[in-house]
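Batch manifest, entry 17 of 40.
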Amino acid sequence: HVQLVESGGGSVQTGGSLKLSCTISGVSGHIFDTCGMAWYRQAPGKEREGLAVIDSVGKRIVSDSLKDRFTISQDGAKATIRLQMNNLKPEDTAMYYCAAQNGVWCGKEYNYWGQGTQVTVS
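Output type: structure tokens
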């Protein structure tokens, strides 16, 4: 049973930094081959917002409005992605989710989602 597990959220003051991690678990004995993974966030009363994506060959795209503060990365085994967030602002307060797509979902939708990790900036 494949799961995405996020960690690294918390409370931070304006201008601070956090690094979120998302690890694929439940794939014992073989590599879970994704074609892409991504970070999203959703603040109360707002629509879900895409933040950054990384594809199977490591190409990274970060939202234009965030690329001077946020960086997406992936470990060599591609089992973990991270989101480095610097110079955080109160408007970054949200639940942050990671997502992955594989198989027939490639290029369409993210078919796996984590449970989310809360980021609060005050």
